[in-house]
């Protein structure tokens, strides 16, 4: 069962479930007439009309153009999901940027914004204040398009437990009351604000908006300053017993490697994360506190790679080998259909995919190597997954917007 | 959804589902009166009576003593699962032994038998013939107790795909048509014979008959000549996309270690499996083709450990360290509530648990170390899981026994 921090899915009444069934049907098949909705759901026409009135009142559906659904009869009014009503806000706190996006109920992207920010250099409170500005801008921009943001989910690159961020070592956060912090500064919204692990939300973003749907059960690797992984099984995130599953970045790949912020040594993200790659490539200007943003830094690296720079190519090859080694161990216990390279590994794919595949193959059992594909979303998967989760929650329980 | 090799769960008719609901209720709460069954299931008393007649006809339930279920009314006839009717046969092919057990419908163990057999030294056909003798003995012994074995599941230490064993390197099996082989030699049974991976069945055995139920989501480690792992999530086995999940034994823990039958190098089972431990402990008599069985060999090791033998203790400590290192990586991606040491690690627990825990703690993220518990089933988990799966299948679809 999909959960958002601190807010388990409710068991609804019959009417609440029926509203969700009807909205799901309209979302999947709209525009669709009342007659067909009755036929598909098994509800009487009166029930369909009553439920539609409730959904329309909440701004979730609207009547559109006439549609003709078969060879017989006259065309009927087509009901669709209201793309100009409630909307979902996705937010992301990452180590070197903040991001926001807004999705309408039809899951179209209506707003996106990313700002570089060295969140290691400031307190959780200051970071939350920065996110607050981004969130208010997003809500205002959505309102200008006639959209009403009803809920938000925040992606955080760390281990979460209930309302708190237990560890986000790359942010320097330890036992931070994230939910309360965010609640205090975000714009007032109808639904409570959720928060979730960045790697899990990136996997959901990939599923809903990226390469995901045809991939079966896949492991999505989020390459940022840290490295996380999210496993999608049967269309849901596999979270593990404490939500710690997929901590790929802290697999030890270099026993004598550098110390990690997690307390370990030779962790994957210390040798194949964004900063490790940039440093190995000679892009030493990119350090904590520098003004170069993540996109600029990776763009600089890509320029070097394109120019055939040997040091840059070697840096990416080594990172790819280490990433592939960690993935080989992961694949032995998780057995995904596909591995998706996301985050910074997406723009680096042309150079990093081959060494990843070679190491994966080298460490694979009986040649059972899952295909490695490249995320079309790159660093946007998590914030899209966060906004998508708001939309999922509305679809799962539209009655929430009535209360 | 739980699957058995080559035989997905069927979607039943309403009557078939109702039979399963009623049998489940009787199994969980029996002895129970017809009146209470109607109250619990929401079926009418007539429906309950009709369904009970069908279940009784198939030998699945029987009337027992009078039971008094509340303060009011007279006692009624208590219906129970029939412990003297259909039964499930569990079979196991392992590298150095064959095993069988029979469970009645109430999941009580009614028969168990283990014979030492060096299955590496003989062909799949000869191994199947050996298993056939064990299976016929088990069916006969069950019949003497009034039980009728209706189905069997065979545990095999290898990677299975559909009807075939793709790889069972410790047995020397590659692309063996196991289902057909077994069908030909096993006694004729009402339900088709299933087969499944030994580590997965051992995890189910642990769940149903061992330490499992209170452990939440757990990772069960099967230590034999090979080392496998099975993850239980929400009461089901997590199998991965191709059923390869949990291949713990082939995690590389010693980059310069010995070659493995899988084609890799330094795999965990080459340094912490039964033969590696025995050899390191100086018990060199135990080699392929020797007449010493697995129980005798491990008993000899336990005697050495009890006597304080330094070489034996060092051998077990090193194996424990390597096992803990592999488990630390596994825990980072799977995040189980608990780790269960089974198979040979169970009798060795007094000496191996501490080094396992130390290595696990050393490699753990943020001290998130799952507790390590010891299986009470030792090497019997897989064969019990296999028999238990037959009983589960009968409970899930009792109508199968009517056809």
UniProtKB/TrEMBL annotation, chains A, B:
The protein's name: ROK family transcriptional regulator
Protein family (similarity comment): Belongs to the ROK (NagC/XylR) family.
Origin: domain of life: Bacteria
Limits of the HTH marR-type domain: 22-62
UniProt organism field: Streptomyces lycii
Pfam family name, one: MarR_2
Entry-linked Gene3D superfamilies: 3.30.420.40, Winged helix-like DNA-binding domain superfamily/Winged helix DNA-binding domain (1.10.10.10)
Signal peptide residues on this chain, from the entry's feature table: none
Source organism phylogeny: Bacteria, Bacillati, Actinomycetota, Actinomycetes, Kitasatosporales
SUPFAM superfamilies: Actin-like ATPase domain (SSF53067), Winged helix' DNA-binding domain (SSF46785)
Entries under InterPro entries matching the protein: ATPase_NBD, HTH_MarR-typ, ROK, WH-like_DNA-bd_sf, WH_DNA-bd_sf
